[in-house]
Write a structure and sequence with these properties.
Strand order of the largest sheet: 5-4-1-8-9-10-11-12-13
Distance between the termini: 24 Å
Number of helices: 10
Order of helices and strands: EEEHEHEEEHEHEHEHHEEEHHH
Radius of gyration: 18 Å
Shape: globular
Oligomer: single chain
Strand content: 15-25%
Length: 318
Amino acid sequence: MAAGQEGKVFDVLCLGIMVADVVALPVSGLPPKGTLATVERMELHTGGCAVNTGISLARLGLRTAVMGKVGMDGFGDYVLAVLRSHGIDVQGVVRDPVNNTSGTMVMVDRDGERTFIHYVGANGALREEDIDFDLVRQAGILHIAGHNLMPGFDGEVAARVLERARAEGVVTSLDTAWDFSGRWLKLIEPCLRHLDLFVPSIEEARQIAGREDPAEVAEFFLDYGIRIVALKMGSQGCYVRTRDEEIRLPVYPVKAVDATGAGDAFAGGFLAGVALGWPLERTARLANAVGALCVTAVGATAGVRSLEETIEFMGQFS
């Protein structure tokens, strides 16, 4: 276990977006207006960065809590039930009596690529007063998951939460979603100086940094004082950088069925390695492996395995 985890109730607290995903596949395109098309499979899954990352962490054996907001509806009941079934603490989840639980229609083509239709719902109503700091200080790591999709929380509010958590001795981490507002750096910049770990996708990181090369992108964030930058590079694996180390790792070869949640699974694997006190390269390899296994099953977390099974999988390629 990493230094700073001793005496904590939770290894990681994931704070962020919580979603119910309706996944359909294969979908090659929308049918003409007023007509109907059939698919081979349609399933209900939990989704949202905080939920996906939290379940990945729990599957890996980490003591995990999830904090966020869901509606007083069936989707909200479902999301909370699934989290509880994984042994995840949900006492920090607020039920919103006005907004329904956020939902996403996920359309997966035969190559595993995804297209989304998203309803922001209760995630958009998350506010600073919803954050239970008694729970936050009980965590070794606070991970904000899905920044850019919580309009009442992103930016200055999230920065204040990160600053306060850090002052309580909590390691801070953040992952991004696509910024449909187009503000990118302007929106997230208040948070950057309060982060220890940053685990965005390379596409989102490039939009924020205004740079293309992964090394230059990582350097941009390190200049804010972030300790570790882990860039999710899709088919190119990952690029991890600190002031003293630079790690490039390829993906593990697997048959992709559904890429939903792969980035969140990577984040879960990376946070697990940090919480366990693993060396940086081994942490990055674990993150790559958790992300790779994620895509082998339909849904955002169905493919994620236990830590022992994941290490066994990694051993096949050592």
